[in-house]
Amino acid sequence: MKSKKRIVLAYSGGLDTSIILKWLQENYNADVICYTADIGQKIDRKKIISNAKKFGVKNIIINDLKNIFIKDYVFPMIRGHAIYEGVYLLGTSIARPLIAKDQIKVAKRYKAFAVSHGATGKGNDQIRFELGYHYFDPKIKIIAPWRIWKLKSRTDLIDYAKKHKISIPKDKKGAPPFSVDDNLFHTSTEGKILENPKNSAPEFIFQRTLSPEKANNKPLIVTINFRNGDPIGVNGKKLQPSKLLEKLNQLAGKNGIGRVDLVENRFLGIKSRGVYETPGGTLLIHAHRAIESVTLDKETMHKKDSIMSRYAELIYNGYWFSKERFKLQKIIDLKKNKVNGSVKLKLYKGNITIQSRDTKSSAYSLKKVSFEENKSFNRSNVEKFINFHKKKLRN
């Protein structure tokens, strides 16, 4: 007997992907392999497995990618100081390329003819997933249910779920839920009351940060240790990448740090409003810029700043695996071996204050900068320098 074709579905175990699972079985006469990437989101392994088994799924794969996610995706992005439209630290954007890459690995292992995802037809994630799929397997079929099925609304989905006896969380009956994405780096919340930019974000939507008003009344001092451009420890204690970020998330979150309310420009041209929480990541980007300030030369720092906006846009648009992003990453990492030392931060009610920078680097010269010592600095050259730029002013 000829075996069925196979599809690998990015599966969370929730309502939407359970509906997609059933829909794929109905429309493609294929065995669906349920794939979940554990990148630090709230994950219920028992629920994922039990929900998939209800549909007769035999292959349920949950891969722990937390350390890979932080080390090979988040840390390189932090080294590039990537911030989209001035405030967004790209927590969702940076996760999708890794998920797509690992999903294709699974598809190749099981000789699947297609992969599928649950991203909606209006959002950015469909682009990020599919560019990743294409990079690692240009010939694989991509099934995007939200763009092709006849279910046009949340009501249609609820009716479909009822018809096929798919359990519906009580808070999802009737009105659509908030759209939430989370991983070890961040949490994002969109939809419902947030869709109208006139509305303030209600406090109950925040999941990993206290409000500054409820944060600790005493400041907290945190030291982040760096080697070759990456954080390696907190307060002198070495930690593996995922544990390091977990620790910083905890410390920053209880001090009201890492909240952003943003109206962003999606790749498809739609404006959308989202609320993001990136507590540990906010500490990292502040500390990384601080350690670079005493370890890198002016030319290198300014070159990095000049490409930051484009680098962030490439990540946001799903171009993590593009030649252009690889090229920019080489520029970003050119002198990362010089970025060593530690930065001490003071956290207090949503604020981050740099207390000190400690490094063995010679890039910062106390002799040259001191008001008390001028022998190592030739003041007579300053006038020549100014006169040269006076001439350039009129050219």
Describe this structure in words.
It is elongated and about 85 Å long. Strands 3-2-1-4-5 form a five-stranded parallel β-sheet, sandwiched between helices. It has two domains: 5-66 and 93-177, Rossmann fold (3-Layer(aba) Sandwich), CATH 3.40.50.620; 186-296 and 335-358, Argininosuccinate synthetase, chain A, domain 2 (Alpha-Beta Complex), CATH 3.90.1260. The protein is α/β, with parallel strands linked by helices and 395 residues long. The model has no long low-confidence stretch (mean pLDDT 93). Strand 2 (30-38), helix 2 and strand 3 (60-64) form a beta-alpha-beta unit. It has helices spanning 15-28, 45-53, 66-79, 95-109, 125-136, 145-148, 154-163, 241-253, 279-293, 298-316, 323-332, 366-369, 380-393; strands at residues 5-10, 30-38, 60-64, 114-116, 141-143, 179-182, 187-190, 220-227, 230-234, 237-238, 259-265, 271-277, 341-348, 351-358.
> What CATH architecture label of the largest domain applies?
3-Layer(aba) Sandwich
The overall average pLDDT, rounded, is 93
Largest sheet: 5 strands, parallel
Across the major sheet, the strand order is 3-2-1-4-5
Radius of gyration: 24 Å
- The span between the termini is 80 Å
Which stretches of 5+ consecutive residues score pLDDT under 50?
none
Number of strands: 14
**Fraction of residues in helix:** 25-40%
Judged by helices, strands and strand pairing, the structural class is alpha/beta
**H/I helix tally:** 13
Number of domains: 2
CATH class of the largest domain: Alpha Beta
Strand content: 15-25%
Identify the CATH homologous superfamily of the largest domain.
HUPs
CATH topology of the largest domain: Rossmann fold
